[in-house]
Write a structure and sequence with these properties.
single chain; Alpha-Beta Plaits; four-stranded antiparallel β-sheet; two-stranded antiparallel sheet; 6 strands
Length: about 90
């Protein structure tokens, strides 16, 4: 794994960042947790790629609060151009 940022999907909408922090901290140092409200997914950033790989291997497909977690390496963030922000398709 090249990145230390993980996509975490199939979350219950009621899951908190603190709960994810606690879950992932069992597998290494968590640097950041972000949950997209009402979307059912979020992102966890581990301290290095090896810890991210370890967490992914341990938690992908596991039950968490009644849902089966889907964990994968997060894709790089897409840069937005000023045209995207204005809604123009020129």
């Amino acid at each position: 794994m090249q990145s230390n940022r993980l996509y975490v999907g199939n979350l219950k909408y009621s899951v908190t960042e603190g709960q994810l922090q606690e879950l992932f901290s069992e597998h290494g140092t968590v640097k950041d947790v972000t949950i997209l409200e009402s979307k059912g997914f979020g992102f966890v950033e581990m301290s290095d790629p090896s810890e991210a790989e370890k967490a992914k291997d341990a938690l992908n497909g596991k039950d968490f609060l009644g849902r089966t977690l889907r964990i994968d390496e997060a894709r790089p963030r897409k840069e937005r151009s000023s045209r995207d922000d204005m809604g123009g398709g020129y």
